[in-house]
Amino acid sequence: VVSQPLFFIGLTVAIFGLLFVLAGFLGELIARGAPDRKRYNVAEKCGFEGTD
Predict the structure, then answer these.
(1) Nearest CA-CA partner of 32 in 20, 24, 21
(2) Could you tell me the CA-to-CA distances from 23 to 12, 18, 34, 37, 43 in Å, in that order?
(3) pLDDT tens column, 23-38
(4) 3 state SS of 41
């Protein structure tokens, strides 16, 4: 199984997929921790009735 080219292609694709997921996760962490990030505060709730 290890000597087949499909194994190496699959392994390479899996590694690249993991790298992309980790890069996206790190990007989200950096974007959330940015000091100039806009923080939205809700002053009032209008037009939304609960279904309680």
Answers:
(1) 24
(2) 16, 9, 16, 20, 35
(3) 999 999 988 887 777 7
(4) coil
